[in-house]
Amino acid sequence: MAGAFRLEAEADRTVPFELPVPWEAPITEVYGRPLHGMAVGVRTEVALAKAVDKGDLDPIAVPPLPSQERVLDAFDRLGFVFKSADVEHGHIHGVAQRLPFYQEIEFFAPPAYGGRIGEVELTFVAGPDGMAVVLEADTRTGMFGSSDQVFRLQIGHREAMALDWTTELGRWLDDLAGGTAGHHFGHGTGSHESGHDAHGRHGGGGPGWAGVAAGAAAGVAVGVAGGMIADEVIEEVFEDEDEGDED
């Protein structure tokens, strides 16, 4: 809050402020390129005497944490191709989560797994000491059948920096493609399960990122305030989404 002040005609005034970004804030750029479908911003409001209040949403860039970038680098090296990113309202089963939503980054699986693995969704839920890495793969079970396979791993940031993600993710994919789906990563604590709605709502710069940059983001815009995503903005976002569904 800047407090009341008088602004003379044609005068400028700067109000400095800073806001902590939540650990779970959605990633909006990778390798310096905007992540298509994502927009995060700080909403500002000015109360003008005898006038309608003026509000604005100023976009900010949220790059991945170094530990998250290690995972994204591995996806790129394995030949995953970025598809899209969005924000889902809800909580992930078995994951300690503070915000009322989570981000999904979707990839097309490498060509080597064509016909066996369709798409893989990646979700990070980060905290000061570590992060949960949630992977959901759409696996083919027959000519027309499919099932979702999920892996959840809780790992510290230091351990994540030391882990060979390319090798571990490759093994997981090989297990899925071979129908075993039993591999566990070598660090942290992980679990594997199968079933539908697998994110648990039961209760570089290589070629894989060629489609990341897309100019202005067309997805959800949320305001960051006081270290948490502003509740009123979240409500507006999902109210607008519900109204669109009704229309």
Please state the average pLDDT score.
75
Strand content: 25-35%
Tell me the count of domains.
1
Element-by-element helix/strand order? EEEEHEEEEEHHEEEH
Share of residues in helices: 10-25%
What's the count of strands?
A: 12
**Widest beta sheet: strand line-up:** 5-6-7-8-9-10
Largest sheet: 6 strands, antiparallel
Number of helices: 4
Mass-distribution shape: elongated
Rg computed from alpha carbons, rounded to a whole number of angstroms:
21 Å
Low-confidence stretches: 142-146, 194-203, 213-242
> What structural category do the secondary elements indicate?
alpha+beta
Cα separation of the termini: 38 Å
Question: Any chance you could write out the topology, listing elements then pairs?
Answer:
Elements: E1 29-30, E2 33-34, E3 38-46, E4 54-60, H1 66-77, E5 81-89, E6 101-108, E7 117-126, E8 130-140, E9 146-156, H2 157-162, H3 165-178, E10 189-194, E11 220-225, E12 228-229, H4 231-246
Parallel strand pairs: 3-11
Antiparallel strand pairs: 1-2, 3-4, 5-6, 6-7, 7-8, 8-9, 9-10, 11-12
Keywords for this entry:
4-stranded mixed sheet, 19% helix, 6-stranded antiparallel sheet, 12 strands, 247 residues, alpha+beta
Can you put this structure into words, describing what you see?
The chain has helices spanning 66-77, 157-162, 165-178, 231-246; strands at 29-30, 33-34, 38-46, 54-60, 81-89, 101-108, 117-126, 130-140, 146-156, 189-194, 220-225, 228-229. The chain has 247 residues and is α+β, with helices and mostly antiparallel strands. It has one domain (19-240). Strand 8 and strand 9 form a beta hairpin. Helix 1 packs across helix 3 (165-178). Residues 142-146, 194-203 and 213-242 have low confidence and may be disordered.
